[in-house]
Specification:
With about 240 residues, this protein is an all-beta fold. Helix content is about 0%, strand content about 25%. The chain has strands at about 15-20, 25-30, 50-55, 75, 80, 110, 115, 145-150, 155-160, 160-165, 170-175, 180, 190-195, 210, 215-220. The chain has a six-stranded mixed β-sheet, with no helix packed on it. A three-stranded antiparallel β-sheet has the order 1-2-3, with no helix packed on it. A two-stranded antiparallel ribbon has the order 6-7. Strand 8 (about 145-150) and strand 9 form a beta hairpin. It is globular, with a radius of gyration of 17 Å.
């Protein structure tokens, strides 16, 4: 992250490193964004040292697991944590922070540390290591999205565009199968429901799919739940831990 512009004067610089062994991937981060900080909440931007470890060999579990209602659910390639699609009791009890307009241009904001509630592809690729990546052109919808982060069960999270076959003869935008059933200003989960669809454009309940190469991966989507609806694998012990 030494080449990243960072959040601006008066703020700490981003720090990120990673390492692997035969079975795990570990990152050390101070959870500071690599781009200009735009205050969206009353919470200050501070450096919060963290170490997270996930498996390199994730497996689909017999049953899905709920993602935490608050706190860490995974992390981005830039070392910022991502949380689920709801806030805490304040300011809008359990409401959808994206729907409520509480996010910056990369769909992040501060609580105890900076975190994302959605993943914006142009903010999380090499060309996005600039001060204001949200001002860049949107990605080419004809190119499959790269990995933008990981869930704490070890499975990768791709951007919204994916191949339909191993040869990648066609690229489609993957869409969430969750539908809005009420007003997500509050109680985001209670005001959405998953509806299974036959089209290959739609993802499963956890917001992922079996990829054309046979592996599983999640996809960031434009609509709720934005990142994950649940874990298909077994999450690491360090999930959650957000403010009460």
């Amino acid at each position: 992250m030494s080449s990243a512009p960072g959040p601006g004067d008066g703020y700490p610089s981003p720090e990120l490193s990673g390492s692997c062994d035969e079975s795990t991937f570990t990152i050390q981060t101070n959870q500071v964004p690599h781009y200009s900080f735009v205050p969206m909440t009353p919470n200050a931007l501070t450096a919060v040292e963290a170490t997270w470890t996930i498996t390199l060999n994730p497996e689909i579990a017999d049953d899905p697991t709920e993602i935490p209602l608050l706190g860490l659910a995974g992390f981005t390639v830039a070392g910022t944590p991502w949380f689920g699609p709801n806030e805490g009791p304040h300011p809008d009890p359990w409401g959808d922070p994206i729907y409520n307009g509480l996010m910056d241009g990369c769909l992040g904001h501060t609580a105890d540390a900076y975190h994302n509630h959605g993943l914006v592809q142009k903010c999380l690729v090499q060309s996005g290591v600039v001060a204001e990546p949200w001002t860049l052109e949107d990605p080419d919808p004809g190119e499959p999205s790269p990995i933008l982060g990981w869930a704490m069960d070890g499975f990768p999270i791709y951007g919204p565009y994916g191949c339909t076959d191993p040869e990648c003869s066609e690229v489609i935008e993957l869409e969430s199968g969750w539908e809005q059933t009420g007003d997500p200003t509050t109680d985001a989960w209670d005001n959405h429901a998953y509806v299974e669809k036959e089209s290959p454009n739609y993802l499963d309940q956890c917001n992922g799919r079996v990829q054309p190469d046979g592996t599983y991966g999640y996809h960031a989507t434009a609509t709720f739940p934005y990142i994950l609806g649940c874990y298909v694998g077994t999450p690491a012990d360090s999930v959650g831990g957000g403010p009460p």
